[in-house]
């Protein structure tokens, strides 16, 4: 089973990436959310800033434990999981980049992008 990039969507609650299998039988998604962190400036002042985090990466390899409280890994989808998880990590690197993130994202994501443009991309981590 091979997956194709479907859409990368920036919305009010974060970012969602979606892949669909070539036979349209399965879907994979990665969701990203912003988290606020604290650090020190070069002047020693405490500053707050936001970064993106990968919240979930699910697909046909994702199952649910018998008690319904945990996600489990379904064997047989290792190749698909590796491909999607790798792309999801690359997306995370791009959206957190201080410089060149938009160009890098455009080089790895060839499907539709919604909610991303030059003016909003530079402010993703604001």
Description:
This protein has 126 residues and is of the alpha+beta class. The chain has one domain (3-117). Helices cover 25% and strands 42% of the residues. The protein has 3 helices and 7 strands; from the N terminus they run ββββββααβα. It has helices spanning 78-96, 101-108, 118-121; strands spanning 3-11, 14-21, 27-40, 46-58, 62-64, 71-73, 112-114. The strands form 2 sheets. It has a 5-stranded mixed beta sheet, with helices on one face. The chain has a two-stranded antiparallel sheet with strand order 5-6. Helix 1 (78-96) runs antiparallel to helix 2 (101-108). The longest helix has 19 residues, at 78-96. It starts with a strand and ends in a 5-residue tail after the last helix. The model has no long low-confidence stretch (mean pLDDT 90).
List the helices and strands and how they pair.
Blueprint: E1 3-11, E2 14-21, E3 27-40, E4 46-58, E5 62-64, E6 71-73, H1 78-96, H2 101-108, E7 112-114, H3 118-121
Helix pairs in contact: 1-2
């Amino acid at each position: 089973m091979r997956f194709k990039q479907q859409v990368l969507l920036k919305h009010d609650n974060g970012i969602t990436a979606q892949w669909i299998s070539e036979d349209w039988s399965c879907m994979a998604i990665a969701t990203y959310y912003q988290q606020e962190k604290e650090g020190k400036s070069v002047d020693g002042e405490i500053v707050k800033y936001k970064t993106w985090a990968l919240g979930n990466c699910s697909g046909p390899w994702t199952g649910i434990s018998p008690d319904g409280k945990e996600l489990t890994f379904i064997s047989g989808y290792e190749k698909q999981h590796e491909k999607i998880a790798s792309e999801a990590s690359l997306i995370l690197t791009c959206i957190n980049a201080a410089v060149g993130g938009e160009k890098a994202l455009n080089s790895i994501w060839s499907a539709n992008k919604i909610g991303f443009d030059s003016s909003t991309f530079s402010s993703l981590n604001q």
